[in-house]
Amino acid sequence: MDNLLAEEVIRRRLLVDGDGVGDDRRILALIKNYLHFCTNAKGLDLEQRAVGHRRLLSQLHQVGMSLVRTNEMTKINEETKEMFVNLGTSLRSEVEQTKHHIVQYKTLLENATKHRKYAMEYDALAKLIRSQPDRKATLEKKNKLLTELASLKTMEAHLAQKLNSRKQNMTILAGSIERLKELMKNEDNLPLPPLPTLTPNIISININPKEEVEDATISPMDIDETIATTSETTIYSKEMILMDEDLILSPSKKEEGKKSPRAKSDMHEDLSESDGEQGA
């Protein structure tokens, strides 16, 4: 491949330049002048021979200088080539080192980014932990709340037991009220005894409708005591009935009772009037 390129270069130079330029031209001119001097030296005198000889020497010196210059240029080119080769090698090694450093720096950058992220998370977590109360204080508060909860549970059990007892008492009271109402209804359904007839010295009282007491002789003082006892018993029974009815009233009835105190006063007036009539 190199031989073909060299032949191609020589062929082009011969076609374009002819004898060539530069060193090649000087060498060809020196050869021509030398051949011309050798062939024509017999017909020349000494002075012409000396001039031709000096011309050939000058051309030879020029060719020698061209050779030295060419050698120096070749040497310089070789040194320059070697320098550039070494420079390319050093540059390639530096590029490889730079690539390796870039990879290392990328790894360091990723690690630094992770460390910064973790540091920010740690700071946020530390702030959150500092915002929360101390563990000792929290445990003390927890124990206090547990103690309060236990006391509240005990109180709840006590209140539940008390409520059950109140419910039982209320049930018993309601049953007693119902029985008392039935008893009152039965007493209301019973026929009233006849009024006693007063005589100047003798009074007859029928205590039981079925059993008649004949010829009962009672003094006026005994009659007054009997009437007073009967009226007191009736008033006490009616007051007990009213108290029981107030206890079992529903909230709506209680409100009605609060709204109409006049009705209760009328009821008490009726009771007092009936007691007055009985006393009379």
TrEMBL record:
Superkingdom of origin organism: Eukaryota
InterPro entries hit by this protein: THOC7/Mft1
Pfam family, one: THOC7
Region (Disordered): 247-280
The keyword Signal is assigned to this record: no
Subcellular location: Nucleus
Residue ranges, compositional bias (Basic and acidic residues): 252-271
Any one Gene Ontology BP term: mRNA processing
Protein name according to UniProt: THO complex subunit 7
Keywords: Nucleus
GO CC terms: THO complex part of transcription export complex
